[in-house]
Design a protein that fits this description.
Blueprint lengths: L2 H28 L6 H4 L6 H10 L6 H13 L13 H36 L4 H15 L2 H15 L16 H35 L2 H8 L4 H30 L2 H6 L5 H10 L3 H29 L7
Length: 317
């Protein structure tokens, strides 16, 4: 794959991001309420002070003018200031990105380690009781609400057994490796459940399709072991359909697992998004959603790179 292809994909993403920004900006401003609601409900804030706050953030301008001002600042790297905290949007996001990368990265590693063997086993034993059991477990994993599972784990491991802390990033006065590990176990398990279930289904489907190909039967006819055929010949091609799903899920998790981070009080991007939603923090919401959109676009480009790596027949000019 040439560097020119990647560059063309990145350049073609510019009008896409521009269109996304227009839609998001319009939706945010059409939503009920506004960022000044927390001030208007405070009788100590005078009308003059309210007008000064509105002018400071450009909220006294028509929405199209507000968008153009925001776009101009965004292009030069100034993401604006949070209406809720008064701090730079980019600074707030960077501070919250570390915990999200830790949680999301661990959850995705767990998902890959579990989903790939489950998909292989299910496809290799298609139609068996084991396959049926794994299919049922996958459907259950996809169907279980994230918040319900999170509360259930908190009740069991924190309240009943007392093994793990119920929420937070680290203990007061703590923060060593074991302390951080105890805090991250439950949210990582909850976050990885749905991805394990869906990824294993995609891998199973891809494996079943590949295992029916002529070259797989030829490999068996040459006396290759089942493990060698599955791992060396089938898995690589079976992963191609699942790559897109894995790449997009990766971008989504890193952009912020909203429900999981909120339930476990994890100080990441997802919790920041919920706090910004509650406060109608327009600059912060736009920064977070544009970052998420860019992440999904980059994930799709990475998926294309993975296609070419998995299948030598795929070439991009």
């Amino acid at each position: 794959m040439s560097f020119g292809y990647v560059l063309r994909r990145l350049l073609s993403a510019i009008p896409l991001l521009l269109g996304i920004s227009v839609i998001l900006f319009a939706i945010i401003h059409l939503a009920p309420g506004g960022p000044l609601d927390m001030y208007t409900e405070n009788p100590a804030v005078s009308k003059e002070a309210l007008a000064q706050i509105s002018a400071a953030y450009g909220l006294d301008q028509p929405v199209p003018i507000q968008y153009l001002l925001w776009l101009k600042s965004m292009v030069v790297g100034d993401w604006g200031y949070s209406i809720r905290t008064g701090r730079p949007v980019l600074t707030e996001i960077v501070l919250r990105l570390g915990p999200t990368l830790e949680l999301g990265g661990l959850a995705l590693i767990i998902s890959l380690i579990i989903a790939i063997p489950l998909g292989i086993i299910s496809a290799s034993r298609r139609g068996s009781k084991l396959d049926s059991s794994l299919t049922l477990a996958s459907f259950a994993g996809i169907s279980i609400p994230v918040f319900w599972l999170a509360l259930l784990l908190q009740l069991l491991f924190s309240v009943q057994l007392g093994w793990l802390p119920s929420a937070g990033y680290k203990s007061i006065g703590g923060g060593d490796f074991l302390d951080r590990l105890r805090h991250i176990v439950m949210p990582a398990a909850v976050l990885s459940l749905a991805t394990v279930a869906s990824w294993s289904r995609f891998i199973r489907s891809g494996m079943i399709d590949v295992l029916n190909q002529d070259y797989i039967r030829t490999a068996y006819a040459k006396g290759r072991s089942e493990r060698g055929v599955v791992i060396l010949h089938a898995l690589r091609n079976a992963m191609i359909p699942a790559v897109t799903v894995i790449a997009v899920d990766f971008a989504t998790v890193i952009s912020g697992a909203v429900i999981t981070e909120t339930v476990f009080a994890w100080p990441g991007i997802g919790r920041l998004f919920m706090e910004s939603m509650d406060g109608r923090d327009y600059p912060m919401l736009m920064g977070l959603m544009m970052m998420g959109s860019l992440g999904i676009i980059i994930a799709n480009i990475i998926a294309d790179l993975a296609y070419a790596s998995l299948d030598p027949r795929i070439r991009y000019g």
